[in-house]
Design brief:
Number of helices of chain A: 0
Largest sheet of chain A: 6 strands, mixed
Number of strands of chain B: 11
Number of strands of chain A: 11
Strand content of chain A: over 45%
Shape of chain B: globular
Oligomer: heterodimer
Structural class of chain A: mainly beta
Distance between the termini of chain B: 37 Å
Order of helices and strands of chain B: EEEEEEEEEEE
Helix content of chain A: under 10%
Order of helices and strands of chain A: EEEEEEEEEEE
Radius of gyration of chain B: 14 Å
Largest interface: A-B, 21 and 21 residues
Structural class of chain B: mainly beta
Chain lengths: ~110, ~120
């Protein structure tokens, strides 16, 4: 079983839509969690950390549910520029475990 | 802050040559750096964890004699692909463990990657 699992998508949504991604992790001892964004043929870029209390950064909201071992990312008012692959990451024992990514296509 | 550079960004070389890729943390010290490889339309694959002043830890299936890693300082790690072959052509990305956002959890920051094409 993979450490981190994500729905690969693609999620095709119109501009202005709200879209949510979930990700599950297998190791309950995972210490910290992140969402990264990767554009085609580019390196991943840190989008936000995910805290138990939930955190929001503009149109992006991330939540962590330790009991069910899942992480979510909500994007409101989608923009064309949000089109990318979103990677869910769990950290434990000095290793970062990446999901395989969820592809988002925002259409005009 | 937390910028990681990688050099070169592109390499085209003949089969059998060795290629060295540098990864630098520009504005923070990184005791731990990571090397990844990514093939087209596939997810990142961790190759090895590089710790300053000690030997790298390689993932299963990654040949340590083929992919030489040196982490001689707190801001520089190098990956040398020895005797490169066409099947080594890939996107190689390094990352460095660095300060988290808003002073919280440490996380990793990626270099821009190196595209290697072996002819």
């Amino acid at each position: 079983r993979k450490e981190v699992e994500q729905d690969p998508g693609p999620f095709n949504v119109p501009e202005g839509a709200t879209v949510a991604f979930n990700c599950t992790y297998s190791n309950s001892a995972s210490q910290s969690f992140f969402w990264y964004r990767q554009d085609c043929r580019k390196e991943p870029k840190l989008l936000m950390s995910v805290y138990s209390s939930g955190n929001e950064d503009g149109r992006f909201t991330a939540q962590l549910n330790r009991a069910s071992q899942y992480i979510s990312l909500l994007i409101r008012d989608s923009k064309l520029s949000d089109s990318a692959t979103y990677l869910c990451v769990a950290y434990n024992f000095n290793k970062f475990y990446f999901g395989s990514g969820t592809k988002l296509n925002v259409k005009p | 802050g937390a910028v990681v550079s990688q050099h070169p960004s592109w390499v085209i070389c003949k089969s059998g040559t060795s290629v060295k890729i540098e990864c630098r943390s520009l504005d923070f010290q990184a005791t731990t750096m990571f090397w990844y490889r990514q093939f087209p339309k596939q997810s990142l694959m961790l190759m090895a964890t590089s710790n300053e002043g000690s030997k790298a830890t390689y993932e299963q299936g990654v040949e340590k004699d083929k992919f030489l890693i040196n982490h001689a300082s707190l801001t520089l790690s190098t990956l040398t692909v020895t005797s490169a072959h066409p099947e080594d052509s890939s996107f190689y990305i390094c990352s460095a463990r660095g300060p988290g956002l808003a002073g919280r959890w440490e996380t990793q920051y990626f270099g821009p990657g190196t595209r290697l094409l072996v002819l």
